[in-house]
Amino acid sequence: MLSLNTPVLAKESTAQTSISVENIVDKSSDNITFSIVLESIDPVKTVEEISIDGAGKGSFSPLTFTTVGQYAYRVYQKTTESKDYQADTTIFDVLIFVTYDEEGTLVAKVVSRKAGEDEKSSITFRPKSLVKPLEPSKRTLPKQSQTSNKPLPLTGEAKGLLGILGVAFLVLLLAFYVKGKINK
Fold first, then answer.
1. How far is 19 from 23, CA to CA, in rounded Å?
2. Which of 26-35, 76-85, 171-180 has the lowest mean pLDDT?
3. Which of 48, 115, 116, 140 fits a disulfide with 91 by CB distance 3.0 to 4.6 angstroms?
4. Does the structure show a pLDDT above 60 at 7?
5. What are phi and psi of 73, to 5 degrees?
6. Between the CA of residue 141 and those of 16, 105, 138, 148, 169, what are the distances in Å?
7. Using CA atoms, how far apart are residues 93 and 42, in angstroms rounded to an integer?
8. What does the alpha-carbon distance between residue 55 and residue 48 come to, in Å, rounded to a whole number?
9. Pairing state of beta strands 91-100 and 45-53?
10. Predicted confidence band at 144 (pLDDT cuts at 50, 70, 90)?
11. How far apart are CA 7 and CA 10, in angstroms?
12. Which of these, 29, 36, 116, lies nearest to 75 by C-alpha position?
């Protein structure tokens, strides 16, 4: 008798994977410490928190899985105390799919995307640089020349003068043209 319900025995194994992140700042010389948090979603609890100084890459400790399933995590940048940067508020949803391969070994595949989006993306944070207000400089006004006390024309006056000069030039050209025609 032929039976189609033949059980498949899988090897006892574990799958490990780690989640990598990147932090990008405006100036590579800025060494402000940024905290990145990895949370599991069911139940919500912090799994690990890592620190990245300035711009750089980091990875969370490897996660170990012993059973097939879909595991959901969330990665975000913690609010910083820095006066120079504001933390990136982007939240990334990370799904880890644990399955058996052809040999019966557990394998884990990591898929990350920005929360609320369908498109896959790498986990990259870009904290915003806070612009420091420039201190007002003590400016001194240039001294007026003693030789010229003549005020500059106002904006509207300069256009009016150019218009009058243009019309006078056209009248002069027309007068020479008419005089040349009359003399011939």
1. 14
2. 26-35
3. 115
4. no
5. -135, 165
6. 69, 79, 10, 17, 39
7. 13
8. 20
9. unpaired
10. low
11. 10
12. 36
